[in-house]
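Ops channel
N.P.: pipeline sanity check, posting one input/output pair.
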């Protein structure tokens, strides 16, 4: 199988294309919702720099995400930006895949490009198959440019740290430090995931060499300083107060701790057992011989292996707990980066295990490879998963119907400026790209920002028996 994977570059490209195609096609029908309408309103009112300060003081310390969203969000370029909204979904998806490939390339530098692409295809398949929320990961731009952007930066920093010993120029060091500054300002979950993972690897390095290289101490210091800057943002307190007042947050340890354990176990079981993780892992285990020697050597006995398993899996609960403690809920978008983390460390765990068992190669007969691949293809299309769901929304026309329905609403708004709209709830709600509808209360902040962006007096929803607009007032 190893020879098969290494010599079939086109096969790997074809698998990647099939995986990504439905997600890319859905981008064509993607349209804004949620905070998207708030971005242009705030920027038009305050300007770029004052907006950054306003968000830091009044909402969150996610300074990197805030700065980038305010630069690239298509809706800041007026209503014409609606036509480009889907392109930015495509861009974030492609950037994520590219960063994942660079991480894999750094992880297995001895492998050729076909082998690296095969590994990318396997890991991407696992991630997309049970991705907690593709909607908030790729299609809701404010969420995507917060959480998925954070993943992209974290993967890039991880890959650059791995290859720094081969390229330790000042330019490379500057790039690494720049990425370390950005990560704490993307999202709190990404920041915690990266720092925890980084510290776990560094602790293994210390056990092996009795010291930690200077570059890692510098990067850790930068991460610590900017994490404090992000976490101590006044906006975090304001947001926490809003959550508490909404009656959602719970500071009761007896409530939060059991819920954390329940959610952690539920998701790990789902990612490992209910999906095709074991089959994909089996197909990629021959990757073991290609893994960086400096990583394999970190887990060179069973005590270190036990430490790795306990810490890396235990971190899943560590990532969930502060979210539940502060807000009382754990939205699907925070599980997107946790899922990718879990899949990467699980594959690494299997590679460490094979190394300790001194299994140097795993040759799988070609008929077995073909049979497993056909099974995965059929299983993906016939079962309920994120990949099959995207194809359903495309083939059924559900995504297109949603897009057309929204275009009718946009046209009505354009033709009736200043009017007060009463709309029926959305009739088409494709699960992958639809987030939420407007509310019955026209003063709700989402309704207000929608109305302001489209130049109408107000907007609210009513019973589904009512057509798009009941009356103009």
């Amino acid at each position: 199988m190893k020879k098969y994977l290494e010599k079939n570059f086109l096969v790997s490209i074809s698998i990647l294309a099939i995986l990504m195609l439905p997600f890319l096609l859905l981008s064509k029908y993607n349209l804004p919702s949620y905070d998207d309408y708030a971005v242009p309103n705030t920027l038009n009112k305050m300007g770029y720099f004052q907006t950054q300060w306003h968000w830091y003081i009044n909402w969150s310390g996610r300074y990197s995400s805030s700065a980038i969203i305010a630069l690239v969000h298509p809706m800041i370029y007026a209503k014409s930006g609606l036509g480009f909204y889907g392109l930015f979904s495509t861009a974030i998806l492609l950037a994520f895949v590219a960063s994942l490939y660079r991480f894999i390339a750094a992880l297995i530098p001895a492998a050729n490009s076909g082998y690296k692409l095969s590994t990318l295809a396997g890991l991407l398949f696992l991630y997309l198959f049970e991705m907690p929320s593709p909607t908030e990961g790729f299609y809701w731009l404010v969420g995507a440019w917060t959480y998925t952007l954070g993943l992209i930066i974290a993967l890039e920093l991880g890959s650059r740290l791995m290859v720094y010993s081969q390229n330790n120029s000042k330019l490379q060091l500057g790039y690494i430090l720049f990425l370390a500054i950005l990560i704490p300002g993307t999202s709190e979950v990404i920041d915690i995931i990266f720092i925890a993972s980084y510290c776990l690897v560094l602790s293994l390095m210390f056990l092996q060499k009795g010291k930690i290289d200077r570059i890692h101490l510098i990067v850790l210091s930068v991460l610590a300083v900017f994490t404090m800057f992000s976490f101590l943002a006044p906006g975090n307190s304001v947001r926490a107060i809003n959550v508490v007042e909404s009656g959602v947050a719970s500071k009761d340890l007896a409530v939060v701790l059991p819920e954390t354990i329940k959610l952690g176990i539920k998701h790990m079981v789902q990612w490992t057992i209910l999906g095709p993780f074991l089959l994909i892992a089996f197909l990629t285990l021959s990757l073991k011989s290609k893994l960086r020697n400096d990583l394999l050597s970190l887990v060179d006995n069973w005590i270190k292996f036990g430490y790795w398993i306990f810490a890396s899996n235990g971190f899943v609960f560590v990532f969930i707990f502060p979210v539940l403690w502060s807000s009382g809920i754990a939205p699907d978008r925070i599980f997107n980066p946790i899922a990718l983390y879990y899949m990467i460390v699980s594959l690494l765990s299997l590679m460490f295990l094979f190394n300790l068992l001194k299994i140097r190669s795993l040759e799988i007969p070609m008929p077995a490879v073909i049979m497993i691949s056909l099974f995965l293809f059929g299983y993906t299309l016939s079962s309920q998963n994120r990949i099959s769901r995207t194809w359903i929304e495309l083939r059924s026309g559900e995504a297109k119907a949603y897009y057309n329905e929204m275009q009718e609403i946009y046209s009505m708004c354009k033709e009736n400026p200043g009017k007060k709209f009463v709309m029926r709830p959305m009739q088409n709600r494709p699960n992958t790209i639809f987030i939420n509808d407007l509310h019955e209360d026209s003063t709700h902040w989402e309704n207000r920002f929608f109305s302001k962006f489209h130049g109408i007096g107000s907007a609210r929803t009513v019973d589904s028996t009512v057509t798009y607009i009941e009356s103009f007032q």
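N.P.: looks fine end to end. The chain has a mean pLDDT of 85.
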